[in-house]
Amino acid sequence: MPYINIKVTDELVTREQKQKLIEGITRLMVEVLNKNPDTTHVVIDEVPIDNWGLSGRQYSEIKKYKK
Amino acid sequence: MPYINIKVTDELVTREQKQKLIEGITRLMVEVLNKNPDTTHVVIDEVPIDNWGLSGRQYSEIKKYKK
Amino acid sequence: MPYINIKVTDELVTREQKQKLIEGITRLMVEVLNKNPDTTHVVIDEVPIDNWGLSGRQYSEIKKYKK
Amino acid sequence: MPYINIKVTDELVTREQKQKLIEGITRLMVEVLNKNPDTTHVVIDEVPIDNWGLSGRQYSEIKKYKK
Amino acid sequence: MPYINIKVTDELVTREQKQKLIEGITRLMVEVLNKNPDTTHVVIDEVPIDNWGLSGRQYSEIKKYKK
Amino acid sequence: MPYINIKVTDELVTREQKQKLIEGITRLMVEVLNKNPDTTHVVIDEVPIDNWGLSGRQYSEIKKYKK
């Protein structure tokens, strides 16, 4: 009966990537914890880059200097 | 002082339905736990159906075969 | 497929009260949103009263003056 | 290694306000808990006013009568 | 910069199982989303079985009849 | 009406530190967003160090090598 919530910055995560995350995490729950996949829920929240802060700064600012 | 967070798939939940959820949950907190409604917060998050996984698959895929 | 998380102060919530909350919220999801109870998860987190703040003060402090 | 999640009603929070929240909260974690800012994450979720309930009513309704 | 929160029933999850979950989920974030493991946080919350509800019933009740 | 949830490793956070976090975050909400402190809730979750992962490893492991 696990519930897994992923918070990730909203940077063009594709439908296929989401499917892979859901599949991979569900498989982990089955293999490591012997959970039933039919009661395993995975929810992905995509967070705008202005709304995520790290080291005291918005990720939208951090990104500018990463390139 | 309860805080209740509802995660639900984003499938045209109406304003009236949201009001009923907020009202019903707040009433439960008052009746069951004797809480003050003025400090009872309810927050509804609507999750895109590509972002919710069950049984290792995206809900957008599951929906196709439910009909 | 809703997931509902309740945060409530840890003040001797009984097993029966928890059961009533789970039952009542699940019924709301069925009646208001037509959800399947078998995919409706409710998780209750009990928070120590030192760890909950309101109006800028710990609830353990607020409680002292409520009586 | 703290992670801080802010839920706030979606009422035109500006980029500058978000930056101030991220900066202020990160500073608190450093000053009060001696945390490393480089592992301090702050995530802001803006919630539509129809989706936030207080006192059993939607905030969109409460707002009408506040003016 | 993902943050992943796992809610799982508190049923003797071992230290080794927790390590496998953390490792497996972090690897997924790197492989699927190309994330930096050094900003990937995984937090596991173990929920007492009286506090988790499914199908309108406490998991502690459901468990009795599963055997 | 903000709700703020802090997840922090469980490493002897004192009552005074919790009070400072609650006070500081509430003040930020008032100063930056003009929020009412009486509807500002802060909830602190202390997470066992075996249950927090960073860089794919449990924090309890990381700590051993930090000294």
TrEMBL record, chains A, B, C, D, E, F:
Domain 4-oxalocrotonate tautomerase-like: 2-57
Catalytic machinery residues: 2 (proton acceptor)
InterPro entries per the UniProt record, alphabetical: 4-OT, 4-OT-like_dom, Tautomerase/MIF_sf
Superkingdom in the source lineage: Bacteria
KW Isomerase (keyword) present: yes
Broad enzyme group: isomerase
EC number: 5.3.2.-
MF-aspect GO terms: isomerase activity
UniProt keywords, alphabetically: Isomerase
Family indicated by similarity: Belongs to the 4-oxalocrotonate tautomerase family.
Designated name of the protein: Tautomerase
Native source organism of the sequence: Fulvivirga imtechensis AK7
